[in-house]
Design a protein that fits this description.
The chain is an alpha+beta fold and 819 residues long. Helices cover 44% and strands 12% of the residues. The protein contains 33 helices and 25 strands. Strands 18-19-17-16-20 form a five-stranded mixed β-sheet, with helices on one face. The chain has a five-stranded antiparallel β-sheet with strand order 24-23-22-21-25. Helix 16 (285-309) packs across helix 20 (379-392) and helix 21 (422-434) crosses helix 23.
Length: 819
């Protein structure tokens, strides 16, 4: 589909592309596909809209963006040599801009230009390169603002409102011949600034202070404020046209003069090559994998511990959504981590679908049914589930504690923590780490520098007043969270993470499994009422031990401490003293210490001696002396007790509060039902209804697959054929405007379609569907009957049937239109 003449418009340039190139455009800019353009003209129009162009510019790397910025300050159109000169300079400076930098730019420029062409931001041949108009408006300087290059407007733009007399004064001061034609005056001044020799001679006559003023403006911003009586250096620059007035108090350095002072360069520091990610340490890959595996197991255990603590119903949900600061502090204390880390674990459980709102009137967080399924998986599979959820999540726990655009605090599990760029940044950071040799820990600053090169315009911030680059913050959070989660070990990417990124969770779990110790079926009981678990425990053992003892310390070995409260907790869960003795004897590699046996027997002997029921509530005990002791205790005043019978007391508070109050006084009461049976409280009874994990908030439309791209390209080509096909004159169609639907009478339409069906020729038709959407189509009629025409539709590339009353008109194609 080559063209014999250069394209005059973007639509013509796109029309000259092959199908693969059009598919590349739609792949790079998927927003152009929603909905599929009707033809090439619609595609070109949509590609030039401001929103689409801004999105395309934001996805350019630094050098491609610098190339577009250089084209924005060049004449339109610009030859390739001019563009190269704006990026490399004219060779007059040998300091910052050395020959090797120029060679690197010359090598990288064809690739950057190809990227801009593929994304339809630049079109035209190398001798007439054109930046699309919308991109030029965004990137080019104007009298109102400077461009991203720091260049100001041209002499012609800056002097557009200047009086002829003032122009004559500038020409005279610069030693240029007078002219009464303003256009000639502007051209003369522009020629002076672009003439290296004459401009150098003019600057040689400038005062040193004037050159200092130019040094401050040359790399931008090019605007400066002046007083009504400017200093002599500023006055000299203004008189010679090197500073042109924009308003009564503002002057600007014209673009031509700035380019001379910059030695022809549009950018101070071009970036033709991406900065390398540097290493800070080279570590043994096996040590890295071991460290990451240990952290992965700790991550799994931490999430499990968090959700176990919320088994009976977690903290209440704020009215605005999310977790309160107080509850987050309590969670951090329980997990023995900083609040920011606690927010990460809470958000991770939520992203993995293990935690959600219970949906009750008094809304609280609780584990979901999916948590029970997750808890039954092997440790390595539980980790891959967490890591996969983290990679895809748009939730950013690093924002917790900050403020939104309205100054409101951002809370954990709150509604304002989604950032659509987070998954892409996480994958990119891990891809950079994966590109390093195994065991290599990168320098975080070089990682950030590389990301800023890849997306220089991605400066989204948390609030309008916050100019911090969100992508950089997410990248730093990614490095920290990767270490917490076991994605990395000692700063380097683990082998199982590489497998997770390359092949998927199954391979990652297989590589991680040998590095995780097998769950143990025993503990070591000690005489100081503690038990040591020398590794991870089997789930039934861990669940029972967590009910019977309190965790005292964590790490490679977990230390549990037995207390009267923890033993009572096990008895409340329905265990008897004999059950507890048998459990400890069966799972301890050391003899059961006598103090522990005495503790269990002592608590069991007193457990259930008192009975609590609902009266509002009551206390029942066969031993009158115990009830007398309770009534005599000053601490029982708040319980508001009174004697009903020698063995019963009544209270004015609810049974749960009465239970808690008596336990704080040192007793071991048990709750009972209305029938007098002891109520057994079991952990893990509260679950939310079935919940799905929160869906990530996408960043723009998804990248289309090959099937969709192929169908879209065919539809655009067919629509373009229908819109541009050459057709014979018809009574009504010939008078129609280009692109308008053909108009013929019903009789003419029927006759033309019947004739085409008999001869097998193609027709151009206008068609309005049931929704009122109009389109142009090229069809080859096969059969006409019953008010319908069956035809091969070249636009849809299939056989379709159309009601004749919905065809607005028909026109025959020229003899060579389908050749």
């Amino acid at each position: 589909m080559g063209m014999t003449t250069p394209p005059r418009t973007l639509a013509e340039a796109l029309r000259a592309r092959d199908d693969e190139s059009l598919a590349g455009l739609l792949r790079a800019r998927p927003d152009l596909l929603n909905p599929v353009p009707g033809d090439i003209t619609q595609l070109a129009t949509r590609a030039g809209t401001r929103a689409s162009v801004v999105r395309a510019l934001e996805h350019l790397d630094r050098f491609a963006l610098q190339t577009a910025e250089a084209l924005a300050v060049a004449a339109d159109p610009a030859p390739y040599e001019t563009l190269l000169g704006l990026l490399t300079g004219d060779g007059r400076d040998d300091g910052e801009h050395r020959d090797d930098a120029g060679a690197a730019i010359a090598d990288a420029l064809p690739g950057a230009l190809a990227t801009l062409r593929e994304q339809a931001l630049v079109w035209g041949e190398d001798d007439r390169l054109r930046l699309v108009r919308t991109a030029r408006e965004i990137l080019a300087p104007s009298p109102q603002h400077a461009s991203p290059t720091g260049l100001g407007p041209t002499v012609a733009e800056a002097t557009s409102g200047m009086s002829p007399g003032r122009l004559q004064e500038i020409l005279a001061a610069a030693g240029l011949p007078a002219t009464h034609d303003p256009v000639s005056a502007v051209a003369s001044l522009s020629a002076l600034f672009t003439d290296r020799a004459r401009m150098g001679a003019l600057l040689d006559t400038a005062p040193a202070e004037a050159l200092s003023v130019l040094d401050r403006l040359v790399w931008g911003p090019p605007y400066g404020e002046v007083t009504p009586n400017p200093t002599p250096p500023v006055k000299w620059l203004r008189d010679h046209g090197l500073l042109l007035p924009v308003s009564t108090r503002t002057v600007v350095l014209p673009r031509e003069a700035a380019l001379h002072l910059r030695a022809g360069r549009a950018h101070r520091v071009p970036g033709p090559r991406p900065p390398a990610v540097e290493a800070v340490a080279e570590r043994d890959p096996q040590a890295v994998d071991s460290a990451a595996a240990g952290q992965a197991l700790l991550a799994v255990n931490t999430v499990e511990e968090l959700l176990k603590s919320w088994n009976g119903g977690g903290p209440a949900i704020l009215r605005a959504g999310g977790l309160s600061v107080r509850e987050l502090k309590k969670t951090a204390t329980a997990l023995e981590v900083p609040e920011q880390v606690a927010a990460f674990w809470v958000e991770l459980a939520y992203a993995a679908g293990l935690l959600a709102s219970d949906g009750e009137a008094d809304e609280r967080y609780a584990p979901t049914p999916a948590y029970d399924d997750w808890a039954e998986l092997p440790a390595q599979e539980r980790w891959t589930a967490l890591a996969t959820a983290w990679l895809a999540a748009t939730r950013t726990p690093g924002l917790v504690g900050g403020q939104d655009a309205k100054g409101r605090a951002l809370s954990a599990l709150g509604p304002e923590l989604d950032r659509s760029a987070a998954p892409e940044v996480r994958h990119r950071v891990l891809a950079l780490l994966a590109a390093l040799a195994p065991g290599t820990a990168p320098d975080p600053e070089t990682v950030l520098a590389r990301l800023r090169w890849e997306r220089p315009l991605r400066g989204a911030s948390v609030s309008p007043g916050d100019t911090t680059d969100l992508r950089s913050r997410v990248a730093l959070w990614t490095l920290n969270e990767s270490e917490l989660l076991g994605i990395t070990g000692r700063g380097a990417l683990a082998t199982h993470t590489r497998a997770l990124l390359d092949t998927g969770p199954a391979e990652a779990a297989a590589l991680l499994a040998p590095l995780i110790p097998e769950p143990l079926d025993h503990v070591l009981l000690q005489a100081d009422l503690t038990a040591v678990a020398p590794g991870p425990l089997e789930r039934p053992l861990a669940d029972m031990l967590s009910a019977l003892a309190d965790i005292e310390s964590k790490g490679g070995a977990t230390v549990y401490r037995f207390t009267p409260g923890s033993v009572r907790r096990a008895l409340d869960a329905g265990q008897s003293a004999a059950d507890l003795h048998a459990f400890l004897a069966a799972h301890s590699r050391t003899p059961v210490p006598q103090p522990l046996s005495y503790l269990i027997d002592d608590v069991a002997r007193r457990h259930g001696h008192l009975r609590i029921g609902a009266a509002s509530s009551y206390v029942r005990c066969d031993d009158e002396a115990v009830l007398n002791e309770i009534l005599a205790d000053k601490r029982s005043v708040t319980l508001r007790l009174r004697r009903l019978a020698p063995t019963a007391l009544a209270a004015q508070i609810d049974p749960a509060s009465l239970l808690e109050g008596l336990r704080e006084m040192g007793y071991a009461p048990a709750a009972e039902s209305a029938e007098g049976d002891v109520l057994i409280t079991r952990a893990g009874a509260r679950r939310t209804p079935p919940r799905t994990a929160p869906a990530p908030v996408p960043e723009g439309p998804p990248v289309p697959d090959a099937t969709l791209l192929g169908a879209a390209v065919r539809a655009i080509r067919a629509g373009d054929t229908a819109a541009t096909v050459v057709r014979k004159d018809a009574p009504e169609a010939s008078a129609a405007e280009p692109g308008a639907l053909p108009r013929t009478t019903s009789a003419e339409t029927l006759a033309t379609v019947q004739a085409a069906a008999m001869t097998g020729s193609a027709l151009w038709i206008g068609y309005v569907n049931a929704d009122g959407a109009a389109s142009q189509r090229v069809i080859a009629p096969v059969r006409v009957e019953g008010g319908f025409v069956t035809a091969y539709d070249h636009t849809a590339d299939e056989v379709r049937t159309y009601p004749l009353h919905r065809i607005t008109g028909v026109a025959e194609l020229a003899d060579d239109a389908t050749a």
